[in-house]
Write a structure and sequence with these properties.
Structural class: alpha/beta
Shape: globular
Order of helices and strands: HEHEHEHHEHEHEHHEHEH
Strand content: 15-25%
């Protein structure tokens, strides 16, 4: 008998392309378990992805899937949600895909508060396209385009999403897979733009260059450096300096874009008599 996760996979697409120790499979499994818990109809569930290691996840999933161009996943997902607002739409992006070339789409999807559940696989690097540093690479860390260490400040994706207008923002690591699943469920239930940052390990492209060890050692690093929201409230800025705050980080309310758009259509129909 197929497991809960396996029943939603395209077995003919395996073996997958991810490197040994990569955490992307953990995120994919958390997403599938979340969709199962939500009880969504697979025929009315859409998964959209861009380009990158994490974006290959859409090709392994047996839902309605769309593998789009680099940085444009949210643009395609917006079109899907406007045309078919009854569909449940998940968007999978990497850290570079979402916040570099896709950064403008990201902030405006948040500003519109369009009903999409966005999962950002944050492995702190462009893993598939050559190991370049991304907007989420921490200062001082090495990449092919930063052989002596990255000098740029990295985005706090949660604060960026909140500031741009997202109504649900959360974060978990692949070590905290059960929490990640629960956050995806909560994000999907939010009527608006939801962002779940998944801290995932890239032992080959990132860990090796930064002497962080193999996949297991990077998982343990996540365990040691993660603190919950409640723990963080009791810690000083100095104590939080090298920590990752995980859990539900923000929940707000704002009008949802597709609902407002439908109201505009109905208003126009009344005026024109069509």
């Amino acid at each position: 008998m197929l497991s809960q996760v396996e029943s939603h996979l395209r077995s003919d697409r395996f073996p997958h392309i991810w490197c040994p120790g990569c955490g992307n499979g953990i995120v994919l499994a958390a997403l599938v378990r979340a969709i199962e818990e939500l009880g969504y109809d697979p025929d009315k569930t859409v998964v959209v992805s861009g380009i990158g290691c994490s974006s290959r996840a859409a090709g392994y999933l047996d839902f309605n899937t769309l593998h789009t161009t680099h940085g444009r996943a949210l643009a395609f997902a917006t079109g899907i949600k406007l045309a078919r607002p009854e569909l449940e739409v998940f968007v999978l992006m990497g850290d570079g895909d979402a916040t570099a070339i896709g950064g403008n789409h990201f902030i405006h999807a948040a500003r519109r508060n369009i009903d999409l559940t966005t999962i950002i696989f944050n492995n702190s690097i462009y893993g598939m396209t050559g190991g370049q540093y991304s907007p989420l690479t921490p200062p001082g860390k090495r990449a092919t385009t930063a052989p002596y260490g990255n000098i740029e400040r990295s985005f706090d994706i949660a604060e960026l999403a909140k500031g741009a207008g997202a109504t649900y923002v959360a974060r978990a690591t692949t070590y905290h897979a059960t929490m990640l699943e629960k956050l995806i469920v909560a994000g999907a239930r939010n009527k608006g733009f939801s962002v779940i940052e998944a801290i995932t390990a890239c032992p080959v492209g990132y860990g090796r260059r930064n002497k962080m060890g193999n996949g297991l050692q990077m998982l343990l690093w996540q365990k040691e450096h993660a603190v919950t929201v409640k723990q963080a409230e009791k810690m000083s800025p100095e104590e939080l300096r090298d920590k990752i705050v995980i859990g539900e980080l923000y929940k707000g309310e704002a009008p949802e874009y597709t609902a407002m758009y439908q109201q505009i259509i109905e208003r126009a129909q009344k005026i024109t008599g069509q």
